[in-house]
Amino acid sequence: MHNVRELLRPSKEEWAGLPRRRSGGRVTLMAWLLGLLTVGGAFVADRGWEEVSLSWEESLLPINVFAGVITNTALLLGIVGWAMGRYLALALSGLLAACAIAQMIVGAQSAPVWTVGTGIAAVMAATDFVSSSRQLRAIRTLAARLRNGETVELGSDVLTAERNALRGGWWITLAFLCISLALCTWFVFDWVDAQNKAVPSDGSTFRPFEAVFAPPAMMLLIWSCSRNIRKGLAYRWAGRFVWIVPGAGGPVWTNGLEPSYGGRVEPEDNRANGCICREGEARRDPEYEDFPDDDVAADDYCALHGFDAVNSMDHASFRASANSAWLWDENSRTPNTSDELTVASKALLGCAGYLFCGLLVVRSSSGIEMPASGATEAYEINKGDADIPNRAKAIPPSEQGILDTIDLAPAGLSGTAVRYRHGRAWLRTDEP
Ligand SMILES: [Zn+2]
Questions:
Q1: Which chain residues have CB less than 5 Å from ligand 1, an ion?
Q2: How many domains does the chain divide into?
Q3: 415 Cα–ligand 1 center, Å
């Protein structure tokens, strides 16, 4: 049954204990500096400012063409390699190694500089790889420990979104493949053409500029292809699980996972006779007419959803409708059933760490569905990043003006409702 997945409920501590990777920015900066230093050091070692010009025939020798192209690519990568992000270290170690070999063969003074650069880049790439695989291992270990046989069924729209999310990366790979092929073909034609040409009289040499871009294109092709394969392989395992994320603090996050807040009236409620909430929303929001099926802000003076409506309920009826968002202040969380470890009804399908952070899904009574907003992939949170752009920790109104408190436990909900004379209710919980 490919649409049945296992439900995992990590605790806040377990989720926050999953390792985050170091920030990509710092890794990239270090690799970028290394690239610049190596290219600069090689220039000095080769006394690059002294013009040693090759003859036309010499410049057509494969080793000279190769050395020229690869060195120029290293220079290019040193300047614009920033765009490769944290994969720059890996790309550099391959490229600098090729430079080291090429310069060793032509007997250049700079060969040791390229070799040292290769060594340092390889160490950087290995360090990043180790921290990345530590994260994947930790997620696997936690999932294995949390499995308890609880399953959920995915709707067909979720299966489609899942397929699309895994397929998307291959279009980029195809684009890099086309660019690489075009550049390589161009270069081969250029080279063959140059060999059949008469020696130019002005002493110029063979310098195929397009060839400088071919190695980066091929590196991007290899990078994109290997990433898709690793993502696919990781998802074969990770896709079996739906994670109920117990809040921020873990290695991935996306908007929509945050808990729900009050102050809204659902469409089925705001169509009731006597409700003025829709009119208020239409006045405030000129684009409201485009989304008539959305929930709307609760009006303070609505006969059905205003302050008086909240406060006139007896405790039993308050408990019975405590799940309705309009009872609660817009800065107060809404209560959740006490057997749930989280307030969010959203979850993440298939979290494979940084390789695939997971797909935002909605839990409902019938199973797992896509959110109305469409498919959203979670993103990675690095070490030292702020947890999430959380709603400011709103402070409930002062103790003054409290009307009464209602324990929600009899309704199977967690927390206590605090009602105010001139406002909506606030949820008091033990949760931080
Ligand atoms: Zn209303």
A1: 275, 277, 302, 304-305
A2: 1
A3: 25
Query: Mean pLDDT for each consecutive 10-residue tract of the chain (432 residues)?
Result: 87 90 86 89 82 76 81 78 82 89 87 94 92 93 94 92 91 94 93 84 79 85 91 93 87 82 82 86 76 79 93 93 88 69 70 93 83 86 73 61 89 87 86 55
- Strand pairing of 4-8 and 346-349? unpaired
Which structure tokens are listed for 200?
A: 């130019």
**Alpha helix ranges (H) inside 197-313:** 210-238, 267-270, 277-284, 307-311
Does some domain include residue 317?
A: no
- Distance (angstroms) between ligand 1 centre and the Cα of 329 equals 14
Domain housing 62: 4-243
Residue 2 and residue 151: Cα distance in Å, rounded?
12
CA 427–ligand 1 middle distance (angstroms): 21
* DSSP bridge partners of 417: 406, 427
Name the pTM for this structure: 0.72
The alpha carbon of 268 and the centre of ligand 1 are apart by a number of angstroms equal to 11
The phi, psi pair for 190, rounded to 5°, reads -60, -45
The region that residue 274 occupies, defined by phi over 0 for left and psi between -120 and 50 for alpha, beta otherwise, is: left
Say how many Å lie between the CA of residue 301 and the centre of ligand 1.
Answer: 8
> Does residue 79 form part of some domain?
yes
Contact 77, 216 (CB under 8 A): yes
Distance 306 CA to ligand 1 centre (A): 7
Distance from residue 258's CA to the centre of ligand 1 (Å): 25
In a domain, 66, yes or no: yes
Return the ∠ at Cα 392 (arms to 429 and 350), rounded to 5°.
75
Question: Is residue 336 in some structural domain?
Answer: no
Q: Ligand 1 centre and the CA of 302: distance in Å?
A: 5
Report CA(298)–ligand 1 centroid distance (Å).
6
Q: How many CA atoms lie within 13 A of 133 on its CB side?
A: 6
Residue 303 alpha carbon to ligand 1 centre in Å? 7
Ligand 1 center to residue 327 CA distance, Å?
A: 11
Instruction: Return phi, psi of residue 298, to 5°.
Output: -75, 135
SS3 content of the chain, % helix, strand, coil (to 5): 50, 15, 35
